[in-house]
Amino acid sequence: MKINEKTSDKDKNNLIIKKYRQYLLLEKSLSKNTLEAYMNDLDKLLNYLSPVSINSLDVKLSDLENFVSGLHDIGIQPRSQARIISGIKSFYHFLLLDDYIEADPSELLEAPQIGFKLPEVLTVEEIDLIISAISREKKEAQRNVAILETLYSCGLRVSEVINLKLSELYFDEGFIKVEGKGSKQRLVPISPKAIKEIGLYFIDRNCIEAKKGFEDFVFLSRRGTNLSRIMVFHIIKELAELAGITKNISPHTFRHSFATHLLEGGANLRAIQSMLGHESITTTEIYTHIDRNMLRSEIIEHHPRNIRFRENKGQSTKQ
């Protein structure tokens, strides 16, 4: 198909991407794995632009800088950021060569300093090991399982999880209401796995007499008050040591892992930013253009916990 005035924007973009793939394969002679990596990186950018209806041919440097800023915000390592930027520069170099654009918006796009170190990211297997290290003989065992699943499945800050209220749980709708930095509230999708673990914890919680003023807190200490940040930090450090995890981790590591695993699984960067509640230059755009059904769809489709939950459910049905 040739591009002409009657060609729709969607068909035009599809044709350009097809030609770009041929360019990488034939002219750049890239290996199959490298080719797919370049195309995956381009998909991340296109998915980022789609909710705000920005055509890839109309992209400005500021759009690309916002995209890269989002990668940094959610904890993508500098080396991975640099690789993604390299892929984007390759795409816009191709567009310039083939006269689709008159100027390359990525020309002044800067790669991150490789020496800058972001917090560690856990693998799904390491998270499973940490949760498996919880001794079921302890009274607070199920509470701790529920806390870790909520941190990982929702990408919450530690302050957000310890201050989570019963009145802010909307399990039937699949959301929780979270109060983040600056007392700003947002709705965050919660996975079936986390809902299940919190539900099991409620059996133990109902046996705890909450102190006055703490009746609405989800996670309680033995004394009937809410937990402290230090207590959650200590729980995670102790469990990581028992699980043989040598990485320097904290509650925030679960948040970075949540974002990284979603992006690696193909989730939309804007949706991830919105779920994390980041304060950034793209905040207004995020909350204007991302609808809640799309957010829930992103976490249900791309989070490792939900993928495994669906697989296990399918196996149970067959049996």
What does this structure look like?
This protein is mostly helical. It folds into two domains: 9-97, DNA polymerase, domain 1 (Orthogonal Bundle), CATH 1.10.150.130; 124-318, Orthogonal Bundle (hpI Integrase, Chain A), CATH 1.10.443. It is 57% helix and 4% strand. The protein is built from 14 helices and three strands. Strands 1-2-3 form a three-stranded antiparallel beta sheet. β1 (169-170) and β2 (175-179) form a beta hairpin. α6 (141-154) packs antiparallel against α8 and α6 (141-154) packs across α10. The longest helix is centred in the N-terminal third of the chain and has 20 residues, at 78-97. It is elongated, with a radius of gyration of 22 Å.
Instruction: Catalogue the unreliable spans.
Output: 280-290
Estimated helix fraction? 55-70%
- Judging from the principal axes of the Cα atoms, what is the shape? elongated
Could you give the count of β-strands?
A: 3
User: Would you tell me the overall average pLDDT?
Assistant: 83
Instruction: Give the class-level CATH name of the largest domain.
Output: Mainly Alpha
Beginning-to-end CA distance, first to last residue: 49 Å
- Biggest pleated-sheet summary: 3 strands, antiparallel
Radius of gyration: 22 Å
CATH topology description of the largest domain: hpI Integrase, Chain A
By CATH, the superfamily of the largest domain comes out as Intergrase catalytic core
The number of distinct helices, counting runs of at least 4 residues, comes to 14
Structurally, the number of domains stands at 2
Secondary-structure element pattern, one letter each = HHHHHHHEEEHHHHHHH
**Known CATH architecture of the largest domain:** Orthogonal Bundle
**Strand order across the largest sheet:** 1-2-3
Classify the beta-strand content into a percent band: under 5%
Structural class: mainly alpha
